[in-house]
Each structure stands twice: as structure tokens, then as C-alpha cells.
Amino acid sequence: MRTHATSWHAWVAVTVVATANTGSSLLAQSRGQAPDERDSSQRCGPTHILVDSSNANTESLLVLCEKSGEIVRLDRDTGQVLNRQEIGEEPFSMTIGPDAGRIYASCRRGQEVVELDATSLDVLRRFPLVGDPVGVAVSADGSRLYVALHSLDLVAVVDLESGQVTKRLVAGNGPTMITVLPERRLVYVSNLLTPPETAGRPPYLELTVIDDETARILDRINLPNANIGRWMAHTPDEAFLVVAISRPKNLIPMAQVARGWVVTNGFALVSPDGRHPPVQLLVDQPNLGVADPYAVAMTPDGRKFYLTGAGVDQVIAVDAEKARQVMKEALAGEIPRYADHLGLSRRYVVARIPVGACPQSLAIGSKGNRLFVGNRLDDTITVIDVATDQVVQTLTIREPTADDRLARGEKLFHNAKRAFQHQFSCVSCHPEGGVDGLQYDLEPDGIGLNIADNRNMRAVRGTGPFKWNGKNPDIATQCGTRTAKWIVRTGWLSSTQVVELVEYIRSIPAAFNPYRRPDGRLTRAQRRGKKVFERTTLNNGTPLPDRDRCDYCHSGPYHTNGRKFDVGTRGPRDTDGEFDSAHLINLFDAPPYLHDGRAPTLEEIWTVYNREDKHGVSSDWTKQQLNDLMEYLKSL
Amino acid sequence: MSNRHVKTTILLAGLAASTALARPPIYDQWTTFSVKDGIPSDKVFCVYAADDFVWIGTDHGAARYDGTGWRILSPKDGLAHQAVLGIARDPDSGDMWFATMGGLSRYSAGRMDTFTQLNSGLANNVVYGVTIQNGEVWAATAAGASQYEIAKDRWTIHDDTNSPMHEIWCYSAAGDGKRIYLGVWGGGLLEWDPARRRWKDYRDPDGEMEIDLFRDDGLVHDILTGVACDRNGIVWAGSYFGLSSYDGRKWRNFLDHDSPLISNFINAVTAHGDFCWIATDDGLNATNRADWWSYRRNEKTGRGVVVWTPRRGEAETINIDSIFPHNYVLGTAFQKNAIWVATEKGVARGTPSGLRTAAARDVSPNSKANKALKR
Q: pTM of the full predicted structure?
């Protein structure tokens, strides 16, 4: 075990990541959508960094590049590219095996994990892993690889000798990153979202714990009032684990944005030995947020950890001992409402360091004196002196290319600096372009009225009008003045910037659909479900009026006719009973369902909330028909 | 001694040893757990034992025994319904699955997920049995069987529309590592071949309710209550009219009047080692198709009677001081050297003290020993 730890330290692998909102034009085309307009071939998009100190003379940096599909080895001091290797579509994160000879990198869009020779970067094996593979980690004994399958809510366990998946464990909602505590033989899995069942209630995040010896689920730790779980790092003695989280206050009216506390940001301190309950602390200041906490890295001595604020282009340095002291006081009841306390951060945040655009990965050099920050949206790496917390260098992986409107739009989407007090960016509520699974009360129509479920931003091109009430005819209306007035509450964007943002949003591709066969053919159950979807008569042969057919409202390439209908779902807080016919692309990807998120599962749309047969006639369906329809809908 | 003789001797010794190992011990030391010991109800429908915990399902929730005490799970904890009829463990994840009268619940490291006919593809909320094999959950429900592929989050219903399910009231599910078997109330035994994705049905050839016309011609009866697969490839099917077993080629059936089977009214069957354990309304049996154990409680004295009836040789009656709390037995499970027996008056753990059988004279089904066990 100690040997492992030593060799692991030779490759100080730390934090990481990136949103996967860029993607494959092939997939878009296969769905009948417009091809991806973005030309990302000249961009890198660093999503993960490892420091390679296996060479005694010099350290080098290994960088996963999401946009170019490469792994790149850089000279640590000059940023010169020493080696590069194409590995697959949309690399996301990587880890190093205990013997330091192998690297395992996940490729989200490629639906695989790639095994690389750590020296030559040659591809040795490919493990197909459908389900949006993201976080990866190798077991302490080196025999197994854990892979978070984000869209299936599973952790795949791969036997590294045979290359076979031996089991798939059920994680929380959207497992994201995985970290192994080798001495304790524990595996921690962060999850992105609150379970869909929490609609209308405070969210919570699950931290899934796996026994590394048996590869079985050992514990599920709930972090109340948290959402968007990202990266984790642990102290060298494995006494504490730090998890990057957000703490949304979505159940209060968005008017509170003006008071600075609708979305707050910070970390959870988790005690793996269970001696202390998890404690959540913020890194925001009373009048300035640190939107989108993402990557975390711990110094080798455990005295300090760093957290990126991807939405504010900052790295936050936290004195670990001071944070633990606050934690003790909090647990002793000495600090009321500590988890929402915007003033506490002054006690443990020791530096707020400006870096490049959208910092989503971190790594610390083997000597612990240098912090490397991967800035995903400007293809740079910021080098920070750990002793002084000063930026000492910026390495450029690729020179900026010609003016790129989409790139500017992508930066706008990911940047919170235009929101009031930098509280949140578009990504804060639309992680990876999708949804945060929460419901919000926007008050233009009255406080406490028309609580609306957040809607997916993936593959929205051509699916207008927008909003559940269908009042916004296009994305520009949705994301322009309306956003300025009712959401970010600032001057927001210039008209040119709105165009750039809209262009980027229109380019966000659909998520990879694990329920769809690679060749696009439907399974037998899906074909049967399609018949239900398109049926023109009841089971007894009675003709169905057009409006009672699924494919009337959900028609066309995006399965929406763009009109509003009363489907019998008006609730006591709704001022209108008619709602926009939602498009059905990537339906599997966006629970909960219906305008206020009341249906945690697709089935409940009809089994619970369609008692009057207003949402299509479903009362004559057999259970078989319902199941078949679910299979079809998930394939869209 | 020649090499050949040495090999033969070793072989015989090995056979003898394996036979001895395969024979269950005499469980003569019993501890009963009832409501006063912390279980939620004395009416224990089922029991499941793993290395670390024992789980029971009752009419008032499930409970877990960790060796020292019981922890109860009820609908307040998210359990689908208080009546828990079946329990299974996912060997991959360690997750527990509960078949209840209100759906299927998964208990995973403190998290309870419930699957019902309203929020999932589950065929029906009344779930009598559950088993997990190769990453698939099979639920025997009152409206067919549900197959849930965990990794694909995909449900498939098997009922009269897509399988030879004469009735859709599925009562029990078991797997042999490859195939799945369903015990169907009125529909006989169904065998699912996952490679061919096809069902094969086994029915009572005579179709008679009251009699078994020809011996060993197939299932004793179409109304099955339990099914189990042992390590030798034998499928066991319990009914309210006797016991059936099928080795892939031949059937062997057992009735209370022509075998040591205590009662034809069988609530559940469990395979353990080479033996099938038969939970009846009047005691507990175990058999490997040749040798038999019978356990029965003397309700007057509270003491137990154990009868060992070997294939050859003489039956032997052993009186033991303690036994399970009631002869209405609903299920069995095994943990290390212990047997757990679910009854309508609590659950009991039996362990062997090392008692051994000795030869007895009377081996016939109507022997004094066996008669003593009959009602």
C-alpha cells in the first residue's frame, strides 16, 4: 500500500475537469439536427492535468484536451509540446495506475475509456463503456478501474487484467468524479444532481461510498441543500475529503438574487472515518460569489487546498486547518447557520487568485510548490506558487485562433461575472448544458406563483418557443432582456454578446443517448412503443381525435408542434393551465418531468398525473404498452 | 498395494467424505426471535441470510439482524409496503431487494428506492418473490413477472401475452446461474433461457386438481408456491399438493403419503448444498431426492423431533430440547453453520452441537418415526 502511495505521489494526480457541452456533429446529424457549427479543431480545451514526475530530472505536464481529443505532454517550464496523441472523442478525465505505467482516460462522446502507455502515450487498450464515462479511478491494489457512467447513474467496475466490466453499481444522480482513499480502501463518488424525487423540496447531493476491497456499495452520504457535486481531494492522512459543491436556494423567489444569496458556492468537508458529520462551508463573500466550484486539489502536506471558481476565473486558496477549526465550531453549535454564512470564508480563504477562462482542472507538482490550473476556455495553464499564492507563469497550450464567435459565446455561457455579484453563470443551472434538476420561482408573474422546472439547454435549436408558458419565441428573447431583468439582474450583455451566446446555445448538442442502439435502429420494445406514440385508435378500435394523439402535440423532428395545451396539470400555484409542448429530444436526460417537475419518472406523467386523459388518452393502455412507450421515449 | 488400488481407495474415501460433507448437520440448538426480541412482527414471511446480516420480511416490515440486534425497516423508511414477502441480495453491489405487497424496494447502503407499477415498469405492485441473477432483477408479481436490467434501467414484463403463462399470478422466482425459473400459481413452472430469450413451460401432465395420476410424469400440480435451484442442476418446485424436482431429464415427485415429506402443503423451497429445504404448514423437511431430514415441533412440549431417513439403511429419530417456534414454516435461509427458519410465530436460528445419527431399523414412510411426524 505504501508503495502505491509513493508511486502515486510521483504522479501527483489531482483535480480536473470540464463541461462536456461541445460535441459531435455526427451525433447531431444522426438525430436530424443541424450539424455542429463549431470548428474546435484549433482549440484544446484542457479538462484534466497530471504532473508526471517519473523522470527524475524534469517534470512534465500531461493534459487532456476535450476539444481536440488529444492527450498532450508539455514541458512544465516552457509549455512546449513534447508529445501528443489523439485518443478519442471528448476526453474528460484521467488517472494513473499504481505502477505509474498506465494512464486511463475517459472519453465522454467516444463512450470509452482508453488505456495509454504513460511514457509513450500510445493507446494500449480501449474499454467501451456506454453511458457517458466521466470520472475514473484505479483501485488501491491496481486490479480494478472504477468509471462513473454519468447518464446511467452507475459506476462500472472494470477488471484491468481481462478488460471486462465485472459489475455496475448504482450511484446517485449523475455520478461525476471518483477518488480512491488507498489506505482506507474506500472509493468516493461525487454526483452532480439532487435526485428527481426532491422536486419542490430542498435538494441534496449523494456522495456514494464503495468498499474498495469488495467493490460493493458501502455507504451513501447525503449533503443536504447541496447540488452540482464536482471534484474531490483528500488530505494525505485521509482524515478529510473535500468536495466541490453549490448550495442553491431555488425554493425562494429569484427576487433574492438582488440580495445575493440564491446560489452560493463552496465545499463539503467529509470525514471518511465517520467521526464528524459532513460540514458545508462557502467560499463566497457577502457581496461577491465564487460561481461554479469545480476542481479541488490538496497540497501534499494537507495544509492547504485549492478550489476553482470556474464561473469567475478564480482559484480560491483555503487554509485547511482553519477550515477544520471552523468545522469544529460549527459542529459544536457555535456558528449558527454556518453552511449559509457568507462572511465565514474570511476565516479560511487565504487567497483569491485570478486565472484564465473557466478553470476546471488543477494539479500540484510533486514537490508541492507549484499549482497548475487548466483554463478550459482559453487553452492556457496558469502556474501558481503555492507558498505565495501568486501567479508566476501562464503556459499556452495553443495560441488563440482567429476571432471565434462561438468561443466567445461559450465563454459567456460559462462566466458569472455578468450576474449580480457573480453569483451564477448559465452553467450553474445548466451544467454541461443540461439541467440542474431544480425548480425556480421567477417572480414576473407574482411571488410564489408558476414555479417552473428548469429546462434542458441541450439540442434546443429549432425547439422554440421557450419557457413553459411558451412566451419567448426564440432563444434571444429568452437569454436577452428577460434574463437580464429576471435572472442575473444586471446590465447583462450587449446585443452582440446576446447573439454570440445564442449561437453557442444553439450549438450545444444532444447528450449521447445510451438507450439508443449505435446503428439507430429501434429495439422491439421501442418499435412497439413508437406504435403507441403514433396510434390513431384506442385499443378497442375507437378513433382517437388528433389532439388526443401523442404525435399531434409532439410532432416533427423535435417532437413538438410549438403550441400550448392544457394537459390537466395545472397546480394550485399556476396562473394558467396551458403549457408549452415540450420537445422530447434527450428526454431521458432531464428528469423530473412536467412543468413544475412533479413527476420524478416518465411513467408518472401518465400513471399519476393524467387522470382526466388530457395528456393523451392513456387510460386504456396496458402496462406492457406503457413500458414500451417509455422505452421509445427514452430513445428519442 | 498397487497404484490402481490406491487410486480406488482414495476415490472411495473422497466420495465418502463428500457425501458426509453434503449431508446437513443436525440442527439441535435453537434460538427464537419474536417481537419481544426486536423483530417487527411474529408473522415472518421470509428470511434471507448473507455472511454479514440476516434479513427477515414480516407483515409489519423488514428487519436486519447483525448478530446482536435487529434494525427494522418500515414504510417510514421508504419501504414500498409493510408486508414483505421476499428478499434477495444483489451479489454485485450488496444491495438488498424486497418484494412487498406494494412494490419492489431496493435498499442500498441506507438508501431506499422503490419501484411500483406507477413509477416504473414493474408489472404489478403485489410482488411475491424476487431473485437477482447476472445483473437482472426478477420479480414474481400478481400480474406476471418483471425483468429489470439494472445496468440498462430497462423493464420487461413477461405475462400471458408473450410467454406460455397460463396464469399470470407468479409466486416465486429462482435462478440457476443461467436460467430463471418462475413458480406460477396455476401456471406451473416456467423456464427462461436468456440466450434464446425464450420461455419453456412445465405443467402437470394430468391436469387434475385432486390427484397425481402418474407418478413422476411431470409437475405434481400447476399451483406452485415456491421454486429453487440447487448446485447439482436440480430444480425444485413446491406446491400445496406436494413436491416436484426436475434434473433436466427426469422428474421425481414426493407426496406425504409416499415419502417422508411431512405435508403436501408447501409454502417455500430453498436449495442449500445438495439438499432442498421444504417449508410446510406442519414442519420442515430437507431432501436430496434420496435422503430426508424432517423437523417438527411438538406443540405440547415445545421440544423438537428430528428424523433422519437415509436412502438406504434405517431411519432414526432424535429428540431435541428446542426447535423453531411453530410448525407453520414459511421459509429457510443459511448462514455459515446456522439455519434460519421463518414461521408464523417468529424466526429461529438453529445450529448444530455436533450430534450425529446412528442406524435405526425402520426406514419405511410409515415407520414409527415418520408417523410421529405426521399430523
A: 0.89
